[in-house]
Write a structure and sequence with these properties.
single chain, about 140 residues, alpha+beta, six-stranded mixed beta sheet, about 40% strand
Length: about 140
Amino acid sequence: MSNDTEPEQVLQRYLDALVAGDIDTIRDSFAEDATWTVKADLPTAGPWHGRDQIVDDFLSAVMGERFEAGSHVFTFPTIIAHGDTVALEWHVSARNTTGEPYENDYCGIFVIRDGKITAVREYLDSRYAARVLFPDLD
């Protein structure tokens, strides 16, 4: 039997909020002292510390400003939970701010304790992301 504090359920609530653009539920999904680390050579590399920095600075500002508003389509082909850890594979289809298509696959390791996301380690094709989202780095 699962409940809303089981790691997989907590992550699913976050993903549903992400798809819906429900910023309040996204924020509530993270522990106050959560960390999010992007394992890549990008300006978005972390770690990002604390719920507000993750939601306001990383997810909303830094990443949000790289995409055309409303262009995101997320799919989540794999979710594997073990203890307080959930491995997630996701795909993002979107357009950058110049309208160029963006298609990238991600993998994240989410640590969930007491019904909140406490840590995320994110992996992606950073070379592709740099080319499409950060062309000013060239």
